[in-house]
């Protein structure tokens, strides 16, 4: 996932362990809203290869994020961002999932579905 890597690299000179740097990076992105609820994170092996660290380093960061309720791992389905106590984010993710399901069932292409959502948001702000 390029958002994790965009303008960011592990600081090999830092006294902060690599797993903690990864954990903090993901936390920052979640807090800033750049990683929305439901966003799938890269696999442990993939991110480890991108960062040139051992897979156990990334696994530890993911494990600690999971213990904090920030991400959830569902076996082979991978690791994704959870609501982490963000009820509004969780409700929005549920609504987005429902909308995406309807769009797929109707065969609406993603760009058109996104345009429909954008128009609905604009209509809402004009009221």
UniProtKB/TrEMBL annotation:
Task: List keywords of the entry alphabetically.
Answer: DNA-binding, Transcription, Transcription regulation
Endpoints of the signal sequence: none
Keyword DNA-binding assigned to the entry: answer is: yes
* Gene Ontology molecular function terms on file: DNA binding; DNA-binding transcription factor activity
Domain HTH gntR-type: residue ranges: 16-84
What Pfam families does this protein's entry cite? GntR
- Keyword Transferase among UniProt keywords: no
Q: What is this protein called?
A: GntR family transcriptional regulator
Report the source organism. Arthrobacter alpinus
């Amino acid at each position: 996932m390029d958002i994790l890597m965009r303008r960011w690299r592990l600081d090999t000179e830092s006294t902060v362990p690599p797993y903690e740097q990864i954990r903090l990076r993901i936390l920052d992105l979640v807090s800033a809203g750049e990683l929305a609820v439901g966003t799938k994170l890269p696999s442990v092996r993939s991110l480890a290869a991108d960062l040139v660290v051992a897979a156990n380093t990334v696994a530890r960061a993911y494990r600690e994020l999971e213990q904090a309720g920030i991400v959830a791992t569902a076996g082979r389905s991978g690791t994704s961002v959870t609501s982490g106590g963000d009820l509004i984010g969780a409700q929005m993710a549920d609504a987005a999932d429902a909308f995406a399901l309807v769009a797929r069932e109707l065969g609406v292409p993603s760009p058109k579905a996104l345009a429909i959502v954008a128009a609905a948001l604009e209509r809402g702000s004009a009221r």
